[in-house]
Design a protein that fits this description.
- The chain is an alpha/beta fold and 326 residues long.
- It is 43% helix and 18% strand.
- The protein has helices at residues 4-26, 46-62, 77-84, 103-106, 142-151, 166-178, 190-199, 209-217, 265-280, 282-289, 300-321, and strands at residues 35-39, 66-70, 92-94, 118-133, 157-160, 183-186, 204-208, 222-226, 252-260, 294-295.
- The strands form 3 sheets. Strands 4, 7, 8, 9 and 10 form a 5-stranded antiparallel β-sheet that branches.
- Strand 5 (157-160), helix 6 and strand 6 (183-186) form a beta-alpha-beta unit.
- The radius of gyration is 23 Å and the shape is globular.
Length: 326
């Protein structure tokens, strides 16, 4: 048995070591090894591109390798679960796909809590959609399209690139806000949807900008509006849906960077500051814009509030429309 004085000395020593370890984060010792960014989709696409850009720039700034770990599966839930269970030390991060705030309403049970299990780091980028129609549709604007749909309820079809995707939810939100009936035609991805839209089998589609822009320039599709709250730099003359007759309409895919809950606040702060610098750099902004993405930024708290607002928004729409996961 140790005497009580010796026990007290050991306890104080242990506490000091603990405080020193915590302080080391604030003293700039992070990172001292490679960082992993889990991306819950296969390589390619907006999420993966954004994660690799940030990873490259973080590696250059900090002199540590940043590895992008693609873990596709289960509508993005597989990779997110891996990150949720990782050590909360700042060396595992995750950049969920756009279904992150949608899945809590689509699935009865998830292997993680979307809000409680993650510490927001920063909003990395957003991906507005482009409302496009077949050139044979006699609509030059969103107002024209709504008027056509009201004149012939159920006569128009919209392409759905997957249950619960932003394209699907954007279409249902437009229907609900405009008070029109447009028939849902499901596809297994945006590629087949664009092909059938060009062929005239469906009349409208909320597409990612890169997937549709070339077809718009070639005259094979007509673009009516973007789904963001503001016009996008890549298409400055293209109006938003909100300013085209549906005030308040906003649907964007977005990619935020998160860490497992419990990651030290100094680490979160250091990541946030460096990634904000990356996103504000002219080269990064140009590269993201070239892929139809709008650079993000901001504080962890702003990302938390945005995530909670997105969850509430889509929960209401999914509940009212009865959308279910495929």
């Amino acid at each position: 048995m140790y005497p009580s004085r010796e026990l007290a000395r050991i306890a104080v020593a242990v506490l000091c070591v603990g405080f020193a370890a915590g302080d080391s984060y604030a003293q700039g010792e992070y990172p001292h090894k490679s960082i992993r960014i889990v991306v819950p989709v296969a390589a390619g696409g907006g999420t993966d591109y954004t994660a690799r850009l940030i990873g490259q720039k973080l590696g250059e700034a900090w002199g540590q390798s940043v590895i992008v770990d693609n873990r596709p599966g289960a509508a993005g839930n597989l990779g997110v679960e891996i990150a949720a269970k990782a050590q909360p030390d700042g060396y595992t991060l995750v950049m969920p796909i756009t279904s992150f705030p949608i899945n809590p309403s689509l699935y009865a049970k998830l292997p993680f809590d979307t809000v409680k299990d993650f510490a927001p780091v920063v909003l990395a980028a957003s991906a507005p959609l482009l409302l496009v129609v077949n050139p044979g549709v006699p609509a030059q604007s969103v107002k024209d399209l709504i008027a056509l749909a009201k004149a012939k309820p159920g006569a128009m079809n919209y392409a759905n690139s997957g249950s619960g995707t932003t394209a699907h939810l954007a279409s249902e939100l437009l229907k609900r806000m405009a008070g029109v009936e447009i028939v849902n035609v499901p596809y297994k991805g945006g590629g087949p949807a664009v092909i059938d839209l060009i062929a005239g089998h469906v009349q409208m589609f909320f597409s990612t900008i890169p997937a549709a822009l070339q077809q718009v320039k070639a005259g094979k599709l007509r673009a009516l509006a973007v789904t963001s709250s503001k016009r996008v730099p890549e298409l400055p003359d293209m109006p938003t849906v909100a300013e085209s007759g549906l005030p308040g309409f906003e649907v964007v895919g977005w990619f935020g960077l998160f860490a497992p809950t419990g990651t030290p606040n100094p680490v979160i702060g250091k990541l946030n500051a460096e990634i904000n610098k990356i996103l504000n750099a002219p080269e990064s902004r140009e590269r993201l814009s070239g892929h139809g993405l709008v650079p993000g930024g901001g504080t962890p708290q702003e990302l938390r509030q945005f995530l909670q607002a997105e969850i509430a928004k889509w929960s209401k729409l999914i509940r009212e429309t009865g959308i279910r996961a495929e």
